[in-house]
User: Fold this.
Amino acid sequence: MDYLGQLLANGLVLGAVYALTAVAFTLVYGVVRLVNFAFGELFMLGAFLTTSLMLPEVRLAGVIVPMPGFPLPVAALGAIVLTALIGVLVDRIAYRPLRNAPRLAPLITSIAVSVVLQSLAQTLWGAEELRFPEFYLATLPPVVLFDSIYLSVMDLVVMASAVIAMAGLSLFIARSSLGRAMRASAEDQTAALLVGIPVNRVVAAAFAIGSGFAALAGLLYAQTYGFAHSSMGFLPGLKALTAAVLGGIGSIPGAALGGLILGLVEALGSGYLPNGTAWKDAISFVLLVGLLYLRPQGLLGKPELNSAGRGSLLGGASEFAGGWLHTLFGRLDGGLARLAAAGPGAALAFLAIAAVLGALMPSDYWLRILTMVVIYGMLASGLNVIVGFAGLLDLGFVAFWAVGSYLTSILFVLVLKDSFGVAPDDIWWLLYLNLPLAGLLAAGFAVLLGTPTLRLRGDYLAIMTLGFGEIIRVVAINWIGLTNGPMGIRDIPAPDLFGIPLGSPRAQFFFALVLAALVVFAIARIVRSYVGRAWVAIREDEEAAEAMGVPTARYKLYAYAASGFVGGFVGVFYAHYQQYISPLNFSLFENILLLMLVVLGGLGTFLGPFIGALIWIVFLQLALDLPFVQAYPETRFALLGVVLIVLMVFRPQGLAASARVSLIMPGSRAKGAA
Amino acid sequence: MRAPTPAPLLEARRIVVRFGGLEAVGGFDMAVARGAIHGLIGPNGAGKTTVLNVLTGFIRPTAGELVFDGEEIGGLGVHGVARRGLARTFQNIRLFGVMTVLESVLVGGHLHFSASAPALLFGTRRSRGAERAMVARAHELLDFVGLGSSFADRVATTLSYGHQRRVEIARALMSAPKMLLLDEPLAGMNAVEKSEIADLVRQVRAQGIAVLLIEHDMQIVRSLCDHLTVLEYGKRLADGLPEAVLADPAVQAAYLGRAR
Ligand SMILES: Nc1ncnc2c1ncn2[C@@H]1O[C@H](COP(=O)(O)OP(=O)(O)O)[C@@H](O)[C@H]1O
Ligand SMILES: [Mg+2]
Assistant:
């Protein structure tokens, strides 16, 4: 009973934090139908700003800045107002130009905003945790309930703040004209426009309130756990999104309920399940995936929200017209488009250039970097099959990559070497067997994960795949018997061919190049056929595709399988190249990075993913020569995020906007070909 | 015993469709004969598109039976119905963005491709042959709908409205259907274009493909259709030969009473 009571109390505190953030997601979703992934980062900003305002001085970007040293309530208020302003600003800059854009565009933009905010926060406040200052209420003795449940005064403050904030919001929505307008827009945006509700003001208000709520949640969280950190918003953000979906995204009481349920389930799960604390993150995501499968609209939500607007990223151009950026992109476009759309000729030329570069490159260091370009290009190509061609935003792609890497590492190191004492040299051929084997395994896995997502569209699809990706990561961390857990697997042998070691950087580069040629060739063969046409048809208009006799569910699974195959296939080489893997290699951030590379180079093109990878990874290295970047390496990620946002606003089709690969088998195009 | 008249190609019996409280179609019956051009007319909002959506599996009717070519097609779903030989166009043109005209038309032929993944990867002679044959067929159809091959490599959505309609028809014909369902294919066209499309529809019939045509232009309907069904408020108002149906006072009232 004591134990249970204590868990319940912890669950309520956690639930309050999730509920507040979930309200942010749900409020904005209700008004603009946007899953603003950046709320996790606004949560983090709330924590940092409060902490900073409470301190006498803070080191910002290495400079000591005097701070007012406010007491908690004043600092909290200041942080909430500042974060609300940042939220409105983000909406104004990054989302408002995309109001009528295809739905994938603002979703990807919000992911980019997340990356920008997190990188900037890390630049400003550093990579270390910032300790949350003592507040006098926190020094009071705990309150004892029923003789056995200890609740700190601050826990009570957390719950009370959440309740007050929720009550205030309900009152605001019920009573104020802006609140009523907000509810009207949530019900029906077009109708709201027609009756003259100033939608932009309503949206700005939703962002302000949502960001304020996220900030409040963040500072309460920081207060409870005693620190602020630049990546602290990531998991709570995902959990809050889960809570919002759980309650039925768009419904405010639903968000509160979802947050509470999630907090309690997590607290009870970590208390009662064997090794529960380690698995508690998986609990939330299993709940999410299960719920989306059984009842996508959530507990209190409306079913029609599970729909994708017609049209894809590539079809509809954004509203924005004119401007020098447009001209600039237009220039870049011509060249890149020709590259990315690449017929076989250009692909061969590309391959030849890469080969010459690999043969002549004097520096091992740069050879390694070029190898990374090829690896990331291949992975991005795999993701491109599902996102770029089939139009399904998959945020769990890294799982397939992980399957490939772990399969080969477990076989070589944990099974054969450690358990049977077989030297890797004796079984060098296993690598070549593992490549297709891991591809097939990952493809099977992809179909397994893809099946429950078939009924989902748009945002929900992204959220569910994200849940899968996180579950896989938590499993990789905790199933120590299989994966060695967070320690990772070491001493994975470098590739070897008939006893000839291929471990040198140059050999590895050419190995990667051969694989890349295979990957691009295979993808091109499949895409330039009726299968690719079916994928693109699904991406552009799923119902019309069905009417043409395309069994869209089956073809989506084919896209998952193809994408999974590439992920698993490349994963095998990745493990042997790095010679060490751990769950950290397969984080959601990697998935986001791959997505950004595909968008950068051009969704739905063959060489675009490689162009994106080349631009990004070479820039990542070259920028390191700048003293500023040496001091603040994260600014590079912020820049990538900014580029992505600008790209989405001005050119949602990616840099190679007019690139368009032919979907017809080479040599069949001409009229008289038959 | 078989009925003396040949069984109709498509038969819809007592179809009911409710959207929430609204009964869009209430107990509708229709039979389309093989090789006929069957007109479905009625004022705006009468439920014509809804009927077409029911026939093609887009809407699952609240009640009723659908038999196509002797087979119950009620629960088959959209692609199942397409597989049985029903092809359609859309009242609001729905072409696939970024695809060229040729690619769009080829998607219509999806049902006739069967190469396996390995066959595609290795580019077997058969898979190439199938692709070439379908491309040739697509070019033929582009000529047939009056577009010609010069349009083949244009992005379909950048064409003029009339041309987009023709691409949609070619795409639908590419599946080699037994029946073609056209939802207001003449809307927004001038007189010349209208008569061209009407000729096209006759040629489709000449190939033995039945046509269900939703159309408002009574002149065209009268000259083109073998049989007419009139819908009003989701109910069948009249059914029969065009001359007789259009002379029916009830039908005239329905059209005079409401602007189209
Ligand atoms: N998906 C839908 N949901 C609700 N009502 C609909 C839907 N589709 C059509 N309706 C309604 O059904 C009626 C018939 O529409 P429709 O079949 O499009 O008519 P028509 O094609 O004859 O002009 C109209 O009142 C229309 O508003
Ligand atoms: Mg209609």
About this structure: Confidence is low (pLDDT under 50) at residues 304-322 of chain A. Chain A touches chain B at residues 310-312, 314-316, 522, 525-526, 529-531, 533-534, 536-537, 540-541, 543-552, 604, 660, 662-665, 667-669, 671, 673-674 (CB under 8 Å). Residues 454 and 500 of chain A are 46 Å apart (CA to CA). The beta strands of chain A are 57-60, 63-66, 130-131, 143-145, 149-151, 227-228, 496-497, 500-501.
